[in-house]
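## retry 2 of 3
previous attempt timed out at serialization; input unchanged, resubmitting
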Amino acid sequence: MMAVRAVNSCSNSILRSASFSCSPPLSAFRCRFDNHFRTLQFRRYWQLGCSRLLKFHCEVRFCVLHGRGRQRSVHSLVDGVIEVLAESMKRKRVRSAIKLTSSGELLADKLVNQPLEKGLLLEFKKDSDRVLLAVAQRPDGKKNWMVHDQNGTISSIKPQQITYIVPGVENFDHTEISTFARKAQDNLDPALLEFAWVELLEKNKSVTPEELAEMIFGSSEPLESYCAHLLLSKDEIYFTVLETKGSRSLYGPRPTTQVEELMHWNLAKEAAEKELEEFVQLLKSTKKMPLHAKPPKSSWLVEEKNRKKVESLEAYAIDAWQNDDQKRTAGMILKAMGMEKTSSSAVHLLINIGYFPVHVNLDLLKSNIRTNHSDEITSAAENLLLESADPDEIDRKDLSHLKVYAIDVDEADELDDALSATRLQDGRLKVWIHVADPAHYVEPGSIVDREAMRRGTSVFLPTGTYPMFPEKLAMKGMSLKQGEICNAVTVSAVLHSDGCIAEYSVDNSIIKPTYMLTYESASELLNLNLEEEIELRLLSEAAILRSQWRRQQGAVDTATIEARIKVTNPEDPEPAINLYVEDQADPAMRLVSEMMILCGEVIATYGSCNNIPLPFRGQPQSNIDISAFAHLPEGPVRSAAFVRIMRAAEIDFRKPVHHGILGVPGYVQFTSPIRRYMDLLAHYQIKAVLRGEAPPFSAGQLEGMASITNMQTRIVKRLCSSSLRYWIIEFMRRQPRERRFRALVLRFIKDRLAALLVVEVGLQASALVSGGTQIGDEVQVQVEEANPRNDVLSLKEAL
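## retry succeeded, writing output
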């Protein structure tokens, strides 16, 4: 009865189609089965008569496919349908309408290739994504053939490109290819493969496209054969290729369990494709929204299906996909959006939907640098503030009576060091370098210490600071604070009149910082030469003595001009950019620099005398002949020439190494233990000896920890450099095109192409300069192009 209802449904469909078209497509005769006919369970219905229905389909499809009965009336067509139906129902035995025309042939017979001749219709693989129909024209060499394809293109193809030769065709007209292809596509019904699969699986038979055409269409004419080939070649569920020889393939039915798995996989694939389509539509609609209306980044992470896709795009944007699935997902999204499969396309898409800010720091994302501390680390740090007992309290020297100057940039959050000075009765200068004492909070090997080692350093970017220690511990506990009693490690030195060290000491101390000064305000105080700030003048005098002494020891002056940028509201499309240009030859900056070098020399000497393993830093001079650079103007130009020939720094963990560039016999970085882990390691070692204990780390252990820390420090250094350059270029992009910038010629790269230092922004760039321009000359330049995202800055000389 089910088969009868299905046939009746078909006959009704035929009647409806006949009233609208004299030559309806085969799809007009498809039976609209209930869903259970589309499952593997339909096999029991097959036994009830569906095979008769398939035979009826074959006969009707064949008639319509070839245009038979075009002049017949609707009544004659109905009579024909009833006649076929009656004949089918009168059959005394149930037999299958699916017949194997070559079931007894040998495998070799089924795979015999038809020789390629002029006028044959063939299918060939144009590229990895396209298959085209073409008509063979003529041989092209020994093996290749010239063909005329459905797009009207004549090209040469190799034999291995041919995927199918349509049988029964001679002298095919290439102008009819498109019509033939359209008819084939219009009459593809993958559901028919299920009928054939059941029958072939029961009989354990293989099939060729021509045999399948005979089975499901009742004919192996060219069009039917090609339709069967398309069904088999595109099928991913019911059939598999058993063997291929040239353009001929033999197919076999898959096992039932495999078909079930593939159907399940296909359903999942369809669901994924629908999910992807919905996500792409969401992206497109979001792109069209005004900036203020775009959803926040967090909204993309709420639903798991959207979160995975947007995270795939983010990973693709920074070249950090974790697996092929992420890469494939991002590629599909970009393709569906009509964009190239590149990381820059992913970046622009994420910016356009508001997931990334316009000025997203890609280098920060790529570096995988921690920008926040975990709850565990933060909690441990807060406990240190509550529970910390000072193990050095008894031995601390009270220096709170000294006038103490802390000099740093105006936005500094962590104050590591401060300075004091006096003149002794014998006329010699004595200076104190007070360094913050984070080691009285943090013990080596503790959870907070291990996290600091992994970070290696605080990260200072134009858009924000990411401290090595949790902010509360660093700011409230470790940092020096104006007008408050602070624990410190103080290095003092008495200087001879020539600037060399006469006496020194290293002590745990208590200080009370008097002034927190910026470099600018400190320079102003020095210029004012106020009597009440005599200590600051003494510090400046000591710095001058030290600079003169170091130069006598072969030190090289590498002072230059550098930029410092502070960006407010970096998430905005046009955030405010505050640019500061620092001249390292500034009196206040030279003062602080000289005192830091003095402190490093004292610590190196103290470590050597007490046999303490420390990160001793050195740098060979490279046999620099200072006089060879005398023709260059002092300052950035000469410094740049020195830097180009300087050799890399060295570190020894057992004994001091001569530091030729600084002109000191040994040097240890000690003055930034809150922001540099290597400085903190030096504190651990020195403070243990001050307490009468053995240093916690051997030279070998220090070397191992330094290798980890220095690797991270190099990553941070590159990040800071690229971030600063990005914002300088963005600053220059915003300037009026007619603005002129002063630039110093540092050297010539080639012919008239010069390396320049743009003075107003502290950035090195290049440009062509006029003939006759010399190294050290100042020129005027203008911006031709500035694109920070692509790291492009093009300058031209303003004549």
